[in-house]
Amino acid sequence: MMIGRRQWMAGGAALAATIAGGPLMARSSGPKPIGIQLYTVRELFAKDPMGTLEKVAAIGYREVEYGGGGYDKMDHAALRKTMERLGLTSPSIHVGYEALASDFDGAVAMTKALGADTLIVPYMGEAHRSAEGWKAAVADFNRYAERLKKAGLGFAYHNHDFEFTLKPAGTSLFDTLIADADPALVQIELDLFWAVAAGEDPKAVIRRLAGRIYAYHVKDRTAEGKMTSVGKGVIDFADIFTLNEIAGVEHFYVENDQSPAPYLPDITTSFQTLSRLRA
Question: φ and ψ at 174, to 5 degrees?
Protein backbone atom coordinates (compact mmCIF):
# COMPACT_ATOMS: atom_id res chain seq x y z
CA MET A 1 0.00 0.00 0.00
CA MET A 2 1.38 3.40 -0.96
CA ILE A 3 1.95 5.92 1.80
CA GLY A 4 0.13 9.14 0.95
CA ARG A 5 1.30 12.69 1.45
CA ARG A 6 -0.88 13.17 4.53
CA GLN A 7 0.58 10.02 6.15
CA TRP A 8 4.10 11.17 5.19
CA MET A 9 3.67 14.56 6.84
CA ALA A 10 1.87 13.13 9.84
CA GLY A 11 4.66 10.63 10.34
CA GLY A 12 7.24 13.39 10.28
CA ALA A 13 5.28 15.52 12.72
CA ALA A 14 4.79 12.60 15.07
CA LEU A 15 8.47 11.73 14.99
CA ALA A 16 9.46 15.33 15.70
CA ALA A 17 7.04 15.50 18.62
CA THR A 18 8.24 12.19 20.00
CA ILE A 19 11.92 13.06 20.04
CA ALA A 20 11.72 16.78 20.79
CA GLY A 21 13.96 17.57 23.70
CA GLY A 22 15.52 14.11 23.49
CA PRO A 23 19.11 13.18 22.70
CA LEU A 24 18.62 13.30 18.93
CA MET A 25 17.54 16.93 19.13
CA ALA A 26 20.25 17.94 21.57
CA ARG A 27 22.60 18.97 18.78
CA SER A 28 24.95 21.90 18.84
CA SER A 29 24.17 24.85 16.59
CA GLY A 30 26.52 26.93 14.48
CA PRO A 31 28.94 26.05 11.67
CA LYS A 32 30.17 22.47 11.60
CA PRO A 33 33.57 21.24 10.42
CA ILE A 34 33.61 20.05 6.83
CA GLY A 35 34.42 16.41 6.27
CA ILE A 36 35.12 14.11 3.35
CA GLN A 37 34.09 10.55 2.68
CA LEU A 38 37.43 9.00 1.75
CA TYR A 39 35.78 6.77 -0.86
CA THR A 40 35.99 9.93 -3.00
CA VAL A 41 39.79 9.64 -3.09
CA ARG A 42 39.99 5.86 -2.77
CA GLU A 43 42.53 5.49 -5.60
CA LEU A 44 44.94 7.85 -3.84
CA PHE A 45 44.20 6.51 -0.38
CA ALA A 46 44.78 2.87 -1.28
CA LYS A 47 48.28 3.69 -2.55
CA ASP A 48 49.29 6.26 0.07
CA PRO A 49 46.89 6.53 3.02
CA MET A 50 49.01 8.80 5.20
CA GLY A 51 49.93 11.08 2.33
CA THR A 52 46.29 11.31 1.30
CA LEU A 53 45.27 12.32 4.81
CA GLU A 54 47.93 15.04 4.67
CA LYS A 55 46.58 16.35 1.35
CA VAL A 56 43.00 16.31 2.62
CA ALA A 57 44.00 18.22 5.76
CA ALA A 58 45.99 20.75 3.71
CA ILE A 59 42.85 21.59 1.72
CA GLY A 60 41.08 22.41 4.97
CA TYR A 61 39.02 19.33 5.77
CA ARG A 62 38.83 18.55 9.47
CA GLU A 63 36.75 15.37 9.45
CA VAL A 64 37.21 12.17 7.46
CA GLU A 65 34.80 9.30 7.07
CA TYR A 66 36.49 6.01 6.22
CA GLY A 67 35.02 3.94 3.42
CA GLY A 68 36.72 1.99 0.64
CA GLY A 69 40.35 2.13 -0.36
CA GLY A 70 41.13 -0.93 1.75
CA TYR A 71 41.10 1.03 5.00
CA ASP A 72 39.67 -1.93 6.93
CA LYS A 73 42.90 -3.90 6.40
CA MET A 74 45.25 -1.08 7.34
CA ASP A 75 47.01 -0.21 10.59
CA HIS A 76 44.25 1.69 12.37
CA ALA A 77 46.51 2.87 15.19
CA ALA A 78 48.85 4.42 12.63
CA LEU A 79 45.94 6.09 10.84
CA ARG A 80 44.68 7.47 14.14
CA LYS A 81 48.12 8.81 15.01
CA THR A 82 48.39 10.53 11.64
CA MET A 83 44.94 12.08 12.05
CA GLU A 84 45.87 13.43 15.46
CA ARG A 85 49.05 14.96 14.04
CA LEU A 86 47.05 16.64 11.27
CA GLY A 87 44.17 17.84 13.41
CA LEU A 88 41.70 15.44 11.78
CA THR A 89 38.96 13.39 13.41
CA SER A 90 36.85 10.54 12.09
CA PRO A 91 33.37 10.78 13.60
CA SER A 92 32.02 7.82 11.61
CA ILE A 93 33.11 4.94 9.40
CA HIS A 94 31.38 2.80 6.77
CA VAL A 95 31.15 -0.93 7.44
CA GLY A 96 29.36 -3.29 5.07
CA TYR A 97 26.28 -5.16 6.26
CA GLU A 98 27.85 -8.56 5.66
CA ALA A 99 31.10 -7.52 7.34
CA LEU A 100 29.18 -6.34 10.39
CA ALA A 101 27.19 -9.58 10.51
CA SER A 102 30.26 -11.78 10.19
CA ASP A 103 32.54 -9.95 12.65
CA PHE A 104 30.56 -7.60 14.85
CA ASP A 105 33.22 -7.40 17.57
CA GLY A 106 35.91 -6.68 15.00
CA ALA A 107 33.83 -3.86 13.53
CA VAL A 108 33.37 -2.33 16.97
CA ALA A 109 37.09 -2.54 17.68
CA MET A 110 37.93 -0.92 14.33
CA THR A 111 35.42 1.88 14.87
CA LYS A 112 36.89 2.69 18.26
CA ALA A 113 40.48 2.37 17.07
CA LEU A 114 39.83 5.08 14.49
CA GLY A 115 38.24 7.31 17.11
CA ALA A 116 34.76 7.17 15.56
CA ASP A 117 31.54 7.22 17.55
CA THR A 118 29.18 5.99 14.83
CA LEU A 119 29.16 2.97 12.51
CA ILE A 120 27.28 3.37 9.23
CA VAL A 121 26.02 0.66 6.90
CA PRO A 122 26.53 2.23 3.47
CA TYR A 123 24.68 -0.04 1.05
CA MET A 124 22.48 -3.09 0.70
CA GLY A 125 22.79 -5.52 -2.19
CA GLU A 126 20.11 -6.94 -4.45
CA ALA A 127 19.54 -9.95 -2.19
CA HIS A 128 18.04 -7.73 0.51
CA ARG A 129 15.74 -5.61 -1.66
CA SER A 130 12.60 -7.75 -1.58
CA ALA A 131 9.85 -6.90 0.90
CA GLU A 132 10.79 -9.83 3.12
CA GLY A 133 14.53 -9.41 2.77
CA TRP A 134 14.38 -5.71 3.54
CA LYS A 135 12.20 -6.12 6.63
CA ALA A 136 14.66 -8.74 7.90
CA ALA A 137 17.59 -6.38 7.26
CA VAL A 138 15.90 -3.50 9.09
CA ALA A 139 15.21 -5.82 12.03
CA ASP A 140 18.95 -6.56 12.01
CA PHE A 141 19.67 -2.81 11.99
CA ASN A 142 17.68 -2.49 15.21
CA ARG A 143 19.53 -5.38 16.82
CA TYR A 144 22.95 -4.17 15.73
CA ALA A 145 22.16 -0.62 16.82
CA GLU A 146 21.17 -1.85 20.27
CA ARG A 147 24.42 -3.80 20.59
CA LEU A 148 26.42 -0.83 19.36
CA LYS A 149 24.72 1.43 21.88
CA LYS A 150 25.84 -0.91 24.66
CA ALA A 151 29.38 -0.57 23.26
CA GLY A 152 29.08 3.23 23.36
CA LEU A 153 28.58 3.67 19.61
CA GLY A 154 25.84 4.97 17.36
CA PHE A 155 24.41 3.44 14.19
CA ALA A 156 23.19 4.96 10.93
CA TYR A 157 22.18 3.85 7.46
CA HIS A 158 23.30 5.59 4.24
CA ASN A 159 20.82 5.74 1.39
CA HIS A 160 21.15 5.49 -2.36
CA ASP A 161 18.28 5.97 -4.79
CA PHE A 162 16.88 2.44 -4.75
CA GLU A 163 15.43 2.77 -1.26
CA PHE A 164 13.04 5.38 -2.64
CA THR A 165 12.34 3.88 -6.06
CA LEU A 166 11.89 0.19 -5.19
CA LYS A 167 8.41 -0.50 -3.86
CA PRO A 168 7.90 -4.24 -3.28
CA ALA A 169 4.34 -4.92 -2.15
CA GLY A 170 3.54 -1.26 -2.92
CA THR A 171 5.66 0.33 -0.17
CA SER A 172 9.07 1.85 -0.79
CA LEU A 173 12.06 0.40 1.00
CA PHE A 174 12.66 3.83 2.50
CA ASP A 175 9.15 3.96 3.96
CA THR A 176 9.67 0.52 5.48
CA LEU A 177 13.02 1.61 6.91
CA ILE A 178 11.52 4.66 8.58
CA ALA A 179 8.48 2.75 9.83
CA ASP A 180 10.35 -0.26 11.23
CA ALA A 181 13.70 1.15 12.39
CA ASP A 182 13.80 2.34 15.99
CA PRO A 183 14.20 6.14 15.80
CA ALA A 184 16.02 6.15 19.12
CA LEU A 185 18.70 3.81 17.72
CA VAL A 186 18.87 4.04 13.93
CA GLN A 187 19.88 7.34 12.40
CA ILE A 188 20.15 8.29 8.75
CA GLU A 189 23.13 9.49 6.77
CA LEU A 190 21.21 11.31 4.05
CA ASP A 191 22.90 11.30 0.67
CA LEU A 192 21.37 14.36 -0.93
CA PHE A 193 22.47 13.46 -4.46
CA TRP A 194 20.76 10.09 -4.37
CA ALA A 195 17.58 11.51 -2.86
CA VAL A 196 17.36 14.01 -5.71
CA ALA A 197 18.25 11.32 -8.27
CA ALA A 198 15.31 9.27 -6.98
CA GLY A 199 12.97 12.17 -7.66
CA GLU A 200 12.52 13.11 -4.02
CA ASP A 201 12.24 16.59 -2.55
CA PRO A 202 15.15 16.55 -0.10
CA LYS A 203 13.50 19.16 2.11
CA ALA A 204 10.41 16.97 2.47
CA VAL A 205 12.64 14.04 3.40
CA ILE A 206 14.46 16.16 5.98
CA ARG A 207 11.22 17.35 7.55
CA ARG A 208 10.05 13.78 7.84
CA LEU A 209 13.31 12.77 9.49
CA ALA A 210 13.45 15.72 11.89
CA GLY A 211 16.20 15.21 14.43
CA ARG A 212 17.16 11.85 13.02
CA ILE A 213 19.75 12.82 10.41
CA TYR A 214 23.28 12.07 11.56
CA ALA A 215 25.09 13.46 8.52
CA TYR A 216 24.69 14.65 4.96
CA HIS A 217 26.64 13.31 2.03
CA VAL A 218 27.08 16.38 -0.15
CA LYS A 219 27.75 15.90 -3.83
CA ASP A 220 26.26 17.84 -6.70
CA ARG A 221 24.32 16.66 -9.74
CA THR A 222 24.47 18.03 -13.25
CA ALA A 223 21.33 18.66 -15.29
CA GLU A 224 22.16 15.41 -17.09
CA GLY A 225 22.25 13.48 -13.82
CA LYS A 226 26.01 13.04 -13.43
CA MET A 227 27.94 13.53 -10.17
CA THR A 228 30.06 16.64 -9.95
CA SER A 229 31.83 18.92 -7.51
CA VAL A 230 29.67 20.84 -5.05
CA GLY A 231 28.65 24.08 -6.71
CA LYS A 232 29.04 22.83 -10.27
CA GLY A 233 25.61 21.22 -10.47
CA VAL A 234 21.97 22.08 -10.03
CA ILE A 235 21.22 21.02 -6.44
CA ASP A 236 20.25 24.04 -4.34
CA PHE A 237 22.23 23.24 -1.21
CA ALA A 238 21.74 26.74 0.22
CA ASP A 239 17.99 26.14 0.24
CA ILE A 240 18.34 22.63 1.67
CA PHE A 241 20.65 23.86 4.42
CA THR A 242 17.98 26.21 5.76
CA LEU A 243 16.61 23.06 7.43
CA ASN A 244 19.83 22.07 9.18
CA GLU A 245 18.46 22.74 12.64
CA ILE A 246 15.33 20.72 11.91
CA ALA A 247 17.45 17.90 10.53
CA GLY A 248 19.71 17.86 13.58
CA VAL A 249 22.59 17.15 11.19
CA GLU A 250 26.01 17.04 12.80
CA HIS A 251 28.34 16.25 9.91
CA PHE A 252 28.75 17.44 6.32
CA TYR A 253 30.76 14.98 4.25
CA VAL A 254 31.80 15.83 0.72
CA GLU A 255 31.52 12.77 -1.48
CA ASN A 256 31.90 12.18 -5.19
CA ASP A 257 31.81 8.50 -6.17
CA GLN A 258 33.00 9.48 -9.65
CA SER A 259 35.56 12.13 -8.73
CA PRO A 260 37.86 12.59 -11.74
CA ALA A 261 41.61 12.12 -11.50
CA PRO A 262 43.72 13.73 -10.13
CA TYR A 263 40.93 14.06 -7.50
CA LEU A 264 42.41 16.92 -5.46
CA PRO A 265 41.02 19.74 -7.66
CA ASP A 266 37.55 18.19 -7.38
CA ILE A 267 37.58 17.92 -3.60
CA THR A 268 39.13 21.40 -3.30
CA THR A 269 36.26 22.92 -5.27
CA SER A 270 33.74 21.07 -3.14
CA PHE A 271 35.43 22.18 0.07
CA GLN A 272 35.53 25.82 -0.97
CA THR A 273 31.88 25.83 -2.04
CA LEU A 274 30.66 24.00 1.03
CA SER A 275 32.65 26.38 3.23
CA ARG A 276 30.55 29.21 1.85
CA LEU A 277 27.27 27.31 2.13
CA ARG A 278 27.46 25.59 5.51
CA ALA A 279 25.30 26.89 8.32
Answer: -65, -45
